[in-house]
Amino acid sequence: MARDILIVDDERDIRSLISMTLEDEGFATKQAAGAAEARNLLLSEPPKLAILDIWMRDSDMDGLELLEWTKSIYPDLPILMISGHGTIETAVQAIRNGAYDFIEKPFKEERLLMMVARALESAKLARENNELREKMTDGVAPELVGKSAVMRGIRQSIDKIAPTASRVLVNGPSGSGKELAARCIHNKSDRRDERFVVANCARLASERVDAELFGSESLQSHRRVVGLFEQAHKGTLYFDEICDLPLETQGKIVRTVNEQRFRRVGGNTEVVVDVRVISASSRDFGAEISAGRLREDLYYRLGVVPLTMPPLAQRREDIPLLAKHFTALVAKRLGVLPFKISDEVLAAMQGYSWPGNVRQIHNVIETMLILAPNDRNEPIDLDLLPAEIHNVTRSGDETEMDTLMGLPLRGAREEFERAYLVTQLHRFDGNVSRVASFIGMERSALHRKLKALNIASDYQEGERKE
Question: Which of 16, 30, 56, 434 has the most CB within a 10 Å radius?
Fold first, then answer.
């Protein structure tokens, strides 16, 4: 992906020389002879780096003033200052105002290229550090965890989707990993070195949503705010819960994603961007369109490639991997020792439905790490799990016990065996061979037992997984 560099200098020969030098190295360049022209270029399509001359004739701003103006809009944009009449005081002032470095004319091509490379690399590292801090703060796992067939299929889909420029619409229940899937798509694409910007649609204030997305500007005060679309230029913009956006804003997004251009709130300049959009929702898109909460044209515009994240209950065999993964991840973040998880605890976790999906298992692990005994040599026991997971609440035990006590021994044994085997079949996604191995029973004998308990017919699909 070409990296755009803006060159601002009042001398045409200097601009052309710098431009040719950079273009020979694979950069794309734009030129401006003065501050007014530079401001228009900066407002219409932000570059990845700017090179500003300090002294410019017939310009309404000198380079230092233009530097200050640019940094007020794009604080993370790396800027190199150049001058043939520079002094130490000027260089210090430029760097204090936010310039990456100062180059005195005349300069050698090698030095210019070295400074450009360093400035771009420094900006990239700063961006990656910020994103890493955000991930650590949110506790987001760095990869999709799981070896189940459904997760293997999702990873294969992501490998095919990522290299394209197609827009993606991710659907799935809350906490199933939709944003994580979007990050994986971004990280495997050619935009991986650019920003991944999140627009949390449910949290965007209705009266400010357009300004948040598209930015705003005041022609009188020359004050400008960069919106999320501009922040994601050359990168990826992720809409979380896209159905929560106001319908009027949805209409503006239709045009923006199609034409890759828009106007800031209060502005007259067309802003050109190159943004890949990935959107997600936990709701049924058809129902949202029918209810008038989602524009049908936006749905088709965003849903070029659909991706569905399954609930955790549909991939129970991944639960042990997720539990161990989050144990190591959260323990490191909290600064505590990880614990060992016993087979009994894992079995109880696999038998639970996890309505909050992957996010819930992450939160449960974090709570257990905080409450676990200081001695981490022994595996944790069932008492550390929340009551709803291992079903040890006193009232629940008494109700189940009363039911069993009201049955003859044979009937009580059958009820227990039925509940036990159904739980194990859920745990191993209906895979009879794996259940037989876990409970220590011959496969043929297990088939006979399932048939006798009238539960064999419910798990015929499991046979195909073996």
Answer: 56
